[in-house]
Amino acid sequence: MELTISNLSKTYTNGRPLLGGPTESVQALKGVSLRIPRGMFGLLGPNGAGKSTLMRILATLQEPDSGNARLGELDVINQKEEVRKTLGYLPQEFGVYPKASAEELLDYFAIMKGIISRKARREVVESLLRQTNLWEVRRQKLGGYSGGMRQRFGVAVALLGNPRLLIVDEPTAGLDPAERVRFLNLLSELGENSVVILSTHIVEDVSELCTNMAIINKGEILLEAQPLRAVEALKGKIWRKLIQKQSLPQLEQEHQLISTKLLSGRTLVHVYSPEDPGQGFEAVAPDLEDVYFSTMGGFYGSGQRKQEQVL
Amino acid sequence: MRLWTIFRYEFGYQLRLPWPWLFGVVLIILSFLMTRDGSLSEVLYADFFLNSPFAVVKTTVFGSLIWLMMAAAIAGDAAARDRATGMHPLSYTTPVGRGAYLGGRFLAALLLNALLLLAVQLGILLGVYLPGVDAALIGPFRPAAFLSAYAIISLPNAVAATAIQFALASGSGRAMAGYFGSFLLVFMGFFVASVLLYGQGLGTLADPIGIRIIVEDIAHLWTTAEKNWRLLQLEGMLLQNRLFWLGIGGIALAGTYLSFRFAHPREGGWGWRKGKKQALAPHSQNPERNALSIPQVPRHFGLALQARQTLLIARTSFNALAFSWGEFALLGMLPLMTLPVLLDQMESRGVPLVPTTINIIYELTGSLSDELSRWVIVPFLIVYFAGELVWREREARMGEIAHSMPGSDWAPLLGKFLGLALMLLLFLCLQSGAGMLAQTLLGYREYEPSLYLKIMLGIQFLDYLLFALLALVLHVVVDQKYIGHLVAVIAFVFIAMASLFGIEHNLLIWGASSGWSYTDMRGFGPSLEPWFWFKGYWLAWALLLAVGAKLLWVRGRKNSLLLRLRQAPGRFRGATAYAGMVAAGAVLLLGGWIFYTTNVRNEYLTTSEKKARQAAYEQRYGRFAASAQPRLSAARLQVAIYPDERRAEIRGTYRLLNSSPEPIDSIHVATAGAVETRALAFDRPASQLLADEQLHYRIYRLETPLQPGDSLQLHFQLLKKANGFSESGIDPSLAANGTYFTNSWLPAIGYQSGRELLNAPDRRAHGLPPRPIIASLYDEKARERRGGGIAFEAVVSTSAEQVAVAPGALLGSWTKGGRRFFHYRTDAPLGGEWAFFSARYAVQEALWTNPDRSGQTITIRLYHQPGRTAQLERMLESIHASLTYYTRHFGPYPYSFLTFVERPGRGTGMHADASMITYAEGFSLWQPMGDEETPDVPFAVVAHELAHQWTVPYAPVEGAPVMSESLAWYYAMKVVETAKGEAHFRRFLSWMHQPYRKEIRRGEPLLRGLDPYMSYRRGPFALYALSEYIGEAQVNRALRRLLEKYQAPAAPLATTLDLYAGLQAETPDSLQYLLHDLFEVNTHWELKVEQATASPTPEGNWQVRLEVQARKLVFDSAGVEREVPMMDWVDLALFASQKGGAAQAPLYRQKHRIHTGRQTLTLSLPEQPARAGLDPYNLLIDPKREDNVQPVVPEQAQAPAAAKRLSQQKKE
Q: Which residues cross the membrane (chain B) (predicted)?
């Protein structure tokens, strides 16, 4: 079973419809097509790229203007109710009832997801709380949970009912490094039988977890690839150099600059170049970050799709 | 200036939001409508300018009330936005002081609110000056009227309410808490001030909105003239009230300032210690990475899940509300406050009412359409709760998770509705509990749980449910919390004041029905059948709306109404479509059936159509008003009542006598609209000239004119039977038990001026000439006698187990064909009103024998509900005392019988017709405790009604109520004095002196008195004072002569001028001034004992020195006050002890001449007096009676002792 997205488009109209104020539209998705197989899929993109819109459409919470998405036999846009039966969704931002305990609220959602039998529910709730490491704090009020605990609780809710489609929207934003590791560990253990979409703007999330990925920017898919292969494909094309900050503008004109980084007061630049650019650049083994920035910079991915179909 | 920056930013920010503008528009529209429509001024029954200061103030008050209910978001948002949006870490860490931060926000909210309230004035101005208003209704433009209303009512309201809303929102960090502030204020105004503190005199002070001051006090206190010109002044009680509420506002602000901290808000309320302790996750670093294994468990979808989800959401919704302030208000505060309210309300004018279950329930229930009911706060809370529930997930930012769950949208919609319903159910159970507790505390044990169940958990619950569903649906459809709130409040305003919008039919007003009624005697009578139809119709609508809400239910985000509407058709399938179709079908079917029965089978007229008919009646037939008609001189009736079928058949014969000097050739018959007149025939050849079935006017032409002194007979046959039900329900006159109707169903002769349009603006609107409410006192034409006594005979039949009653002596009763027949006939002519009754009555019979040894006897029959006997003995006692006193002083009682009949109804009043006195059930439940303190008011009421049997035939001119009610009350006072003794009489007098509306009614003098204060209080007081000044015998003689003179058939009708002349003849010259002051002008006195001292004399006597102060004032008819010189005889009395009040026999009582100003009186007494009083019996009207009596201080004792004595007196 896989998730096939074809030609999804969504435009927001901003303004005050009630008072008839001026309106402007933002195209959040421009004909997005993707094929998402079983396993962990990373959707990588900067803030505002349209990730959350795509996630919400897949989570049945928003209507696209056009296009469709199919989960196996199911039409995600028109068979929402069927999709919801098999959906787990962890939104980018969510709250909890601060006065409820994790156990209560998870139990509540278990019923909502159709686990009606009390015994089955108890079993599932206990299992999920244990595996998200919340068992010992299950009786405490959710209002007192830290960000990471809350996030893990969210995963527990999303996992209720063994979803075949799990959508996790920017789950690691705002977590401390230890929590982040713990959280990613949890995600990595998700069954192999589901489609898991992880949307993030953090490259490491994808490189550490995902077998497939896509890069999205300004509502368009720039790259659809397997991380390892994408990195492989860039081998020998990424060069780096430590420069003074003031020489950056000149460098930018002469080379296909993909990223800059501060390193002990100087600037470390990565450029894309199929052959050695000379001038003191040294070859560097590319990583997924280079893939991301090359793609964002337009040197790789959709622009060159025809030549380098990486699948 | 940081404050200025914050203020400017906040003000600008809110101005960019939609709702301040919406609030403004709504306020303009509603105040426009209130100005245009006089429906709120019905209580005021007067005709004043649209832009008179009073009208402006009144609309301002109601505008403030609506503003209060809907606009709390402004202060709430200003106070809580930072915390609600999570922006507080940014704003709290700026270098701004608390004062500037809070002050800027508060002032911005205040300014916005103040500007919003200007919209009310704007609405009024538009209402007055936009086209469409009769120019005669508009007075000169006075800016001061608008400015003073705004400055005195609106501005202080804005300050106090904004401060309280701001304080609560700031304290809780939730903008919606502002609405709790509004709730508290409405609660104060409608519940605490109007009900609880009313008796204590604090009500006016505690009313935050001005409802009590304007609508209840000033509306009754000011004369029409005053309402037109007098400006609201900031003085007296109003000033105190405004200062009090400004003070409360100030306290709220100070509290906010002092408790506010720029700190992270602690976690929720009381449990914060527990909450603060962060849950620590155990850092179990288990290295083995085992794949997540989630147990595979069976899942269920479909109906089972939906039911389970619905119940789950219902439970959590209920719990969520159960721990909110709103729940505390609804389930805690209201039932708690209900108890004292019930205890307080179980009395009528100071005399306890037996707390039967229905009496309690009437206090506990209120129709949604009663905007002045104290239960207006319940719908207000429902709106709030509905908003909280609809927004619950999304406010906790859990919307996206919750919305991605499987299951249909029915589950959350129904679940939330059930949660709300559960809470309302609990509320009504608690209210019923409070009711039973009140009954227990009052010593009443006959709880009727089934009645609580039927009315509280049936009727009232359904009313609340219908409104709750509407509120829920509106919140779903609008999908913006504040605007949803606004729309729901508007919906409530629409329901409560639908007539403002020109909508009257119950089929068009959400949840409306023709109402229900219940009395112990009649039960629900015929009121339930139409109620069920209407509620069924509205339930069908409710289902339809629920389907609509389901279709427009918000799932996900960024779903504009437009988008949801576009998607709705696609969602209309399956069970939803089925439910929608069933609901629409039921709406059409039930609505169609109701429309058929109310508008086709029965006639339905809107208010304006009714007025148009009244106008047409006068325009078409008014010209016959003066044409000579025969008068009714005898009526013979056969009335067959079928209680179970709610049917009555009446056959009758009138004898019509030409008592005019000229022959009459045509007879005008006014038939009744309420019945079907089947046949109408004369005993001589006549032809029908006109039969206007719409206006119920018929003219018959006699072939041979009726000569003066000659008479003819009119035979008629009537049928009264409910034909389905009409828009207003079924006439309850015919009931399975407790049938009661009058001769208003029978044909009347001649043009009926009583059917004319009365209200002056209505008359103007229909082009009718002005018609005074009543003819001038000096109108000689009105004194002409029309009609005379009627010889009456009736055979009334009813079902076998009931007793039928009609006026007259019971000549016989028999049973035939399973029905009982009763034959009544009068032995002396009767007046023009007769009533008929049928119920399962028990009869108490008694015989009164005239003690004057004339041998006259009167058969007294008391028809009462079986079992309700507690009042009978008192009634008989009063009847005997009254008959004895009245026959001795005022002349003989003309009949050999006297009938008292109980009829269904809650009132405690009685109604007197010739030889027959009727009373509603309430009277038999109106029972003084029999202690030493409370006077026996029901005894006096019986005496008063009996006194009406001696009423002087009076003309329908100004002063008519004085002729009828004042005289009858004076008679009753005398009976109480004679029968119950001096001490009891004094207690009764102080009961009479209790505030009756307001003490001093400015305006017309007694001779032209019309209003209840004049006729029921001022008049009898004047007669009683006179009897104390010139003697009881003199006053009684004048009254007896008056009666004798005007009882004669040939005499004209009497007016107050004849009464006045009669009293003048009995009054010595030295007291003519008093008569003038009491009757001819509107006088009051201000009398006061300033200081009273006594010292022993060597002879063993006591020398008493009194410092007294006196003033005399006269009001003209517009209410302008003027002081007049005084040199009047005033009672001066000294009493031996502090205790005993006016009931104690005085040591000394003498009338002294008292002049204007301060004066010293010295007296010598054999005993030491303890109290001194100037006019201690309140014979003269004095607005401040309590300073008439003061303790007497021994001469040598100085000020401290006097103070001590005073304080002792207070303790007593």
A: 17-35, 55-75, 106-129, 149-169, 176-198, 243-263, 318-343, 372-392, 413-439, 451-474, 486-512, 532-554, 575-596
For helices A102-112 and A147-159, what crossing angle results, to 10°? 30
pLDDT surpasses 80 at A197? yes
Going from N- to C-terminal start, the domains of chain B cover: 2-263, 305-512+538-568, 843-930, 951-1080, 1081-1212
pTM over 0.90: no
Task: Name the 3-class secondary structure at B910.
Answer: strand
Strand, coil or helix: A244 = coil
Please list the residues that pair with B420 across neighbouring strands: none
Give the amino acid at B808: G
Beta strand spans in B221-289 (E): none
Q: How many CB atoms lie within 10 A of CB A168?
A: 27
Give, as one character, the DSSP assignment of residue A92. Answer: S
Residues of B whose CB is below 8 A from A185: 289
- Chain B interface test: which of A13, A14, A61, A189 (most B C-beta within 10 Å): A61
How far off is chain B from A242, nearest CA to CA, in Å? 38
**Residues on chain B touching A62 (C-beta within 8 angstroms):** 556-558
CATH class of B951-1080: mainly alpha
Q: What share of chain A is helix, strand, coil (3-state, %, to 5)?
A: 35, 30, 35
Q: Where in chain A is the domain with CATH 3.40.50.300?
A: 3-225
Nearest to A186 by CA among A209, A204, A203, A211: A209
3-state DSSP call for residue B1007? helix
Q: CB distance A144–B279 less than 8 Å?
A: yes
Which of 378-407 (B) contact A at CB < 8 A?
Answer: 396-398, 400-407
Rounded to whole angstroms, the maximal C-alpha distance in chain A is 70
Domain B843-930, CATH number (from 1.10.760.10, 3.40.50.1240, 3.30.2010.30, 1.10.3720.10): 3.30.2010.30
- pLDDT > 70: percent of chain B: 92
Q: Are A164 and A194 in contact (CB under 8 A)?
A: yes
Cβ-based contacts of A89 with chain B (< 8 Å): 400-401, 404
Q: Is the predicted pLDDT of residue B200 greater than 70, yes or no?
A: no
Topology classification of domain B1081-1212: Immunoglobulin-like (2.60.40)
CB pair distance less than 8 Å for B290 and A189: yes
Query: Does position B1146 have pLDDT exceeding 60, yes or no?
Result: yes
3-state secondary structure of B1168: coil
A26, A43 contact by CB (below 8 A): no
Fill in the amino acid letter for B394.
R
Q: Identify the H or E element spanning B937.
A: helix B937-947
Cβ contact B281–A148 (<8 Å): yes
Q: Do B18 and A62 touch (CB under 8 A)?
A: no
| Distance of alpha carbon B1197 from the chain centroid | 52
Return residues 539-558 of B near A (CB < 8 Å): 555-558
Using CB atoms, which residue from B292, B305, B323 is nearest to A191?
B292
Choose among B278, B293, B406: nearest Cβ to A84. B406
ipTM: 0.87
Inform me whether the C-beta atom of residue B273 falls under 8 Å from chain A C-beta atoms: no
Give CA–CA dist B386/B399, Å, rounded. 17
pLDDT confidence tier of residue B1002, bands split at 50, 70 and 90: low
Q: What tens digit of pLDDT does each residue of B367-419 get?
A: 777 766 778 888 888 998 999 899 888 888 888 888 888 888 899 999 999 99
Of 3.40.50.970, 3.30.70.20, 3.30.200.20, 3.40.50.300, the CATH number of A3-225 is 3.40.50.300
Does B8 score more than 60 pLDDT? yes
Give the pLDDT confidence of B162-192 residue by residue, as tens digits. Answer: 999 999 999 888 888 888 888 888 888 877 7
Q: Are B451 and B361 in contact (CB under 8 A)?
A: yes
